[in-house]
Amino acid sequence: MDNYFDLTGKVAVVTGASSGLGADAALAYAKAGADVVLLARRAEKLDTVRVEIEKTGRKAIAQACDVTDEESVKSAIGKILEVFGQIDILLNNAGIAVRGGVDSMTVEEWDKSFDTNVKGIFLVSKYVIPHMKENNYGKIINIASINAVVADKSDLFIRHSYNSSKAAVVGLTRGMAASYAKYGITVNAIGPALFESEMTSGTLFKSEEFLKGYNYSNPTGRPGNRGELNGTILYLSSDASSYVQGQFIIVDGGSSLV
């Protein structure tokens, strides 16, 4: 039987790869056979992930990159192509969550959300897609959030810029998918619910009230565990999803059902 999830010979680029879901996905790519490029602002944290990937026998490079800065992105993608000569998979994972409602946020806080969550995807994709078009092949996966379609009424966790920026990621994904399918490029988005990560461990996971409510309303009765997002990421990154285009797959243990 063909192994449609085999990524041998592929090069995967992961943004926001220094910790959490990004680091987990990078290691999953390596275990599936891909060489991996790690992008994040904190180069020192990337080296830890790089060492773990190299233990699998795959190649990895760690490259400091600010996805909100065009020159930083352009330089990073240029270096990747110099080293590997190809980019087959792009996981746009870098993201932030800024708390606050429209009546309390500053313009700077609002812009920060959109700069990272939306502009970051635009900039990295801008410099990767021309290469994918030349090769008539590419897999782009954008990490959105369940909060693109589900909001929280609690004042403790109101995040209007997060809701709207992640909804924008879904819209951008659909637009890119329709435009670039003819070049052999698939573009899809994933909407995780609550997973423990660097972003959530210091906020949502510290609130017993929030976790109690989340676990009660979630059919599985718990947040996602580390690694439980990897299967969906690998599916959308492999030939198993060759006819899947412009989709938004929610990985939430059933939270959005109830």
TrEMBL record:
One of its GO terms (molecular function) is oxidoreductase activity. Gene3D superfamilies: NAD(P)-binding Rossmann-like Domain. It holds the Pfam family adh_short_C2. Keywords: NADP, Oxidoreductase. GO terms for biological process: bile acid metabolic process. Belongs to the short-chain dehydrogenases/reductases (SDR) family. This is Gluconate 5-dehydrogenase. The lineage of its organism: Bacteria, Bacillati, Bacillota, Clostridia, Lachnospirales.
